[in-house]
Design a protein that fits this description.
Length: 281
C-alpha cells in the first residue's frame, strides 16, 4: 500500500511513450539489445500502483513476452526514492467487499500472476521503498536485485487490510511461514541486507550500480537458450502449485527440450567446442 502522497519535491516527469501502438502515461519502456527495460514513472507518487499503471504494466509485459527478440526483462522504478511505494489507496478506500475482491482478482490476472508465469525471465531492480504492491511486484518477478538503501515490507494491516496481490503466498514461499507472518503482522520494513539473508532478494548492490548489475545479469541470461529457460520457469513454478507434481512437470519439460532447435544448437556447439548461438526455437 502507498504510504503518503509524496516524500519529496523532486522534478515530476509527465511523459508518454508509445510502444507497439500503445501509449503509456505512467511507465517508460526501452530496448537494449535483447533486454526490455520497463520503468514505473510516477515519481511524485513514489511510483505507487494505481489502476492505470497496473494495466499499462500488464500490457508492457505482454508485449515484451510476445517479442521474440526480447530475452530478458528488467522492471524498476524511476528516481532514487522508490521502486514502488505500494498501491494508490485513494482509488479504493471506499470499496465494498465485492469491489475489493474484484480489485484483487483483476490485479492477479492482468499483472502479478502474469509476470510470474511469463516465459521471459523478469529481473526486479529494487531501488528504495518496495512496499505493499511494490514488494508484491518484486516477488512475482523471477529474480530480485536490491539497492543498498532499499526498504521492503507489507504494511497493509496498518490500514485494516491484508496484502491482496499475492503477498501472503509468495512471501511465505520465499522466506518461510514464520518470517512471513512476522513481516505481515508487524507491518515492519526490513533492510536490503536482511532481505538478502532471508532469501527475499538475490543480491544487494550500491544504488548507483543497481541498473547496470541487473543489465549484466540480463545479458548473461539472454545468451542462453530462451526455449530452455521457458521450460525451466514452467518447471520451477509447477513445484509451487497445488495439485501439480513438479517432478513430473520437470520430466515433461526436459523431454520437450530434445525436440527443439536450441537443443540441437547447444549440444552441437558443445561437441564442436564453440559458443552456441541459440535461435530460440
Amino acid at each position: 500500500m502507498f504510504i503518503g502522497d509524496s516524500f519529496y519535491n523532486g522534478l515530476v516527469l509527465h511523459l508518454q511513450q508509445t510502444q507497439n501502438g500503445m501509449t503509456y502515461n505512467n511507465i517508460l519502456t526501452e530496448i537494449e539489445g535483447a533486454i526490455q527495460i520497463i520503468t514505473i514513472n510516477r515519481p511524485d507518487k513514489l511510483n505507487a500502483l494505481n489502476k492505470e499503471t497496473i494495466e499499462e504494466l500488464g500490457n508492457a509485459f505482454s508485449s515484451a513476452e510476445a517479442d521474440g527478440n526480447v530475452r530478458a526483462i528488467i522492471i524498476t522504478g524511476s528516481g532514487e526514492k522508490a521502486f514502488v511505494a505500494g498501491a494508490d489507496i485513494s482509488e479504493f478506500y471506499q470499496f465494498s467487499v465485492e469491489k475489493g475482491k474484484e480489485l484483487s482478482a483483476k490485479g492477479h490476472e492482468i499483472l502479478f500472476d502474469l509476470v510470474e508465469n511469463l516465459t521471459t525471465p523478469v529481473i526486479a531492480a529494487v531501488n528504495g521503498f518496495a512496499l505493499g504492491g511494490g514488494l508484491e511486484l518484486a516477488m512475482c518477478s523471477h529474480i530480485r536485485i536490491a539497492s543498498d538503501n532499499a526498504k521492503l515490507g507489507l504494511p497493509e494491516v496498518t490500514l485494516g487490510v491484508i496484502p491482496g496481490y499475492g503477498g501472503t503466498q509468495r512471501l511465505a514461499q520465499l522466506v518461510g511461514k514464520g518470517k512471513a507472518n512476522e513481516m505481515i503482522f508487524t507491518a515492519a520494513m526490513i533492510s536490503a541486507e536482511e532481505a538478502k539473508q532471508w532469501g527475499l532478494v538475490n543480491n544487494v548492490v550500491p544504488q548507483e550500480e543497481l541498473l547496470e548489475t541487473a543489465k549484466k545479469m540480463a545479458s548473461k541470461i539472454a545468451r542462453n537458450s530462451p526455449v530452455a529457460i521457458a521450460s525451466a520457469i514452467r518447471s520451477v513454478n509447477a513445484g509451487f502449485k497445488d495439485g501439480v507434481n513438479g517432478y513430473q512437470s520437470e520430466i515433461k519439460e526436459f523431454g520437450k527440450c530434445f525436440g527443439t532447435e536450441d537443443f540441437k544448437e547447444g549440444t552441437t556447439a558443445f561437441m564442436e567446442k564453440r559458443k552456441a548461438v541459440f535461435p530460440g526455437k
